[in-house]
Design a protein that fits this description.
Length: 291
């Protein structure tokens, strides 16, 4: 809003030190159509020059030519209008530079925040690993192998200490029990850890998973049929200006576009698969917002 207000105030005709071009034209009994017939400058651009709405006019090389042709036809000095137009251009350049500096400062601040947060996270992780993690490794809980050994040792030793005179078969059972204990211990040590299989399965699942596709932007294709000036703003980015020549083509992708076209008949636009062959008359200024 601040830039727009600056642009409107900078180009207002009839302002301080300005010329009322419309009044001068009407005093000579000329209409805007008469000026168009003599200069071939579109009626829209002529009215913009009269009102001083420079922000809607084509690039300076065309606008200054329009001003000189208009002033020559009215037999007035174009210098005052050119000076006011140059002040407008300088004001716009300053505003764009300030906006760029603000965006750059914001990006720099964001990077510093991310870097600082990453460093703090690294220190916290290191502290956890050095001072806290080792304590989790010390535990008095028995292992699976020790539990198996204890559960088998108690009945075997008890059976060995019993008198063989009580039951001659007990000694043989004790011996067979010792052999069974060894087999069970060997089987216990050969059983694979379930966690390894789980990690392997998870790794396989992760490899098979595909990344979630991000939301696609809108595709814009502009083709030039004649020399055309364009001012394009993609989403919330800083607008930029280009001058397309016949046969040239550009393709851009963004969530939203705001476009100023200096020659409505000079381009065709294809957006979201739909093509618009004509936006208006030759030399007409058109303002678009897509979608």
């Amino acid at each position: 809003m601040a830039v727009q207000s600056l642009q409107e105030n900078s180009g207002r005709s009839g302002g301080e030190g300005g010329l009322d071009l419309k009044a001068l034209r009407e005093a000579r009994g000329l209409t805007v159509n008469d000026i168009y017939q003599a200069t071939r400058i579109s009626v829209v651009n002529l009215e913009l020059v009269e009102k001083g709405e420079f922000q809607h006019l084509p690039p300076p090389i065309y606008t200054k030519a329009y001003i000189n042709a208009y002033a020559k036809l009215l037999d007035i000095d174009a210098k005052q209008i050119i000076i006011r137009y140059d002040k407008y251009l300088a004001a716009v350049a300053r505003a764009d530079e300030e906006e760029t500096c603000q965006l750059t400062a914001g990006v720099f601040f964001s990077k510093r925040v991310v870097i600082t947060a990453s460093i703090l996270a690294a220190f916290l992780f290191a502290g956890f690993y050095i001072y806290i993690y080792p304590n989790f490794q010390v535990s008095d809980a028995p292992t699976v192998a020790s539990l198996s050994m204890k559960s088998q040792d108690i009945p075997v030793e008890a059976m060995k200490n019993k008198s063989a005179t009580e039951n001659p078969e007990i000694a043989s059972q004790a011996k067979s029990g010792g052999a069974a204990e060894k087999e069970q211990m060997q089987a216990a040590t050969s059983v694979p850890v379930a966690g390894d299989d789980i990690h392997k399965d998870r790794d396989g699942e992760n490899k098979n998973q595909s990344p979630v596709p991000s939301a696609s932007s809108n595709l814009l294709i502009i083709r030039a049929k004649a020399t055309t000036w364009l001012r394009i703003r993609e989403g919330g980015n800083i607008p930029y200006q280009i001058l397309m020549k016949p046969g040239e083509q550009i393709e851009r992708s963004a969530p939203q576009f705001t476009i100023d076209v200096g020659n409505a008949a000079g381009i065709t636009i294809e957006f979201q698969g739909k093509t618009t062959e004509s936006l208006g008359k030759s030399g007409e200024v058109v303002h678009l917002r897509l979608p």
